[in-house]
Design a protein that fits this description.
Elements (H helix, E strand, L loop, with lengths): L3 H11 L3 E8 L19 E7 L4 H11 L2 E10 L3 H9 L5 E4 L5 H9 L4 E10 L1 E5 L7 E2 L1 H8 L21 E5 L4 H11 L9 E3 L2 H9 L4 E5 L1 H6 L4 E3 L1 E2 L6 H6 L6 E9 H6 L1 H21 L6 H13 L3
Parallel strand pairs: 2-3, 2-4, 7-12, 8-9, 8-10
Antiparallel strand pairs: 1-3, 4-13, 5-13, 6-10, 6-11
Helix pairs in contact: 1-2, 2-11, 11-12
């Protein structure tokens, strides 16, 4: 497999909104040994996806590498956020939908109403990372209660000294994913507990906007997926939560709680069963997701999870 650390860096710096590639079968590559049967003949056609910007680094690497396996298959993947991706999935516009949270009950109902059957596939683990600027030399550790006090709208002007009187009497500057983001939904559930986010927050579906805003302001704080912190750790400082720093080990073990979470893609069963290029791309994704996750800064699942996903995918053709 190629060095996708470089791909990850260029993805984040370039603020890529659409991932597109012609992927093709000329030879078996990387860790995708198990897909030789489906790649024995060249395929043609299109595969479309959308969804989470958190999942985007994994999917971009896979799309790029698939380009060396199936050159006549056009794969496009938008990054309109988990919620935005599900909207397109429900409309039947996409073959798969990337998500940084589990599908919601109302989305399940909408898919049922639309007559769309789907399968959930796990891709990797993420640790939602709370970050500040490298210039911030006072914040090292926050509790979940500190986060709630900072981020819940209560009609006051939030200052660092509200958390610790020894910290600067300076207004906190907030950056957060947009409301269509699964990362926003997850933070809303486990930290805000469904209360309103602080009204002063700058919200963006583009994690690169958040990175750049936090980098530039010592009074800023924000959150996004672990891979975006990893790619920018020279200019950002990650904050421990309840004394635990997000690392591959603490994310996989669940010790980094409550901000460790799985990442998903959801497949349209009909597309996967009836369109060979869609099935092939999903198979390639599951075969390579673990290695790609590690390459771009996330945490791979145990191999048995990928094996289960491949079995579930194969069952769609039966």
């Amino acid at each position: 497999m190629k060095n996708w650390k470089f791909v990850m860096a260029s993805t984040i710096l370039g603020s890529s909104v659409l991932l597109g590639a012609c992927g093709g079968n000329t030879a078996q590559q990387g860790s995708s040994e198990g897909s030789s049967e489906s790649e024995a003949a060249q395929l043609e056609g299109e595969v479309s996806g959308d969804g989470s910007s958190t999942v985007a680094p994994i999917m971009e690497g896979i799309v790029e590498e698939y380009a060396g396996v199936q050159p006549n298959v056009q794969v496009t993947v938008g990054v309109s956020g988990t919620g935005g991706g599900f909207e397109k999935f429900i409309q039947g516009e996409t073959d798969f939908s990337n998500a940084s949270r589990p599908i919601k009950e109302e989305e399940v109902k909408s898919l049922e109403d639309a007559g769309i059957d789907y399968t959930e596939f796990l891709l990797a683990y993420d640790g939602l990372s709370i970050v500040v600027s490298k210039e911030n030399d006072w914040v090292e550790d926050l509790t979940v209660e500190d986060l709630k006090k900072l981020w819940v709208e209560d009609g006051t002007t939030k200052k660092w000294s509200d958390i610790n009187p020894e910290w600067p009497d300076e207004e906190v500057v907030f950056y957060a994913p947009g409301t269509d983001s699964g990362t926003f939904d997850y933070f809303n559930e486990v930290i805000l507990e469904e209360e309103d986010i602080v009204s002063a927050a700058t919200l963006s579906e583009d994690d690169n906007v958040l990175v750049q805003g936090i980098q530039a302001d010592p009074n800023a704080i924000g959150f996004f997926g672990y891979a975006y912190y990893q790619a920018n750790q020279d200019t950002l400082k990650v904050v421990k939560i309840n004394g635990v720093e997000p690392t591959n080990e603490t994310i996989e073990s669940g010790e980094y709680s409550p901000l460790s979470r799985p990442l998903f893609t959801y497949a349209n069963n009909t597309s996967a069963a009836e369109e060979e290029q869609v099935y092939d791309f999903l198979q390639y994704t599951l075969e390579n997701a673990g290695e790609m996750a590690e390459a771009v800064g996330y945490v791979a699942l145990p191999q048995e999870e990928y094996d289960k996903g491949l079995s579930d995918l194969e069952a769609l053709k039966q």
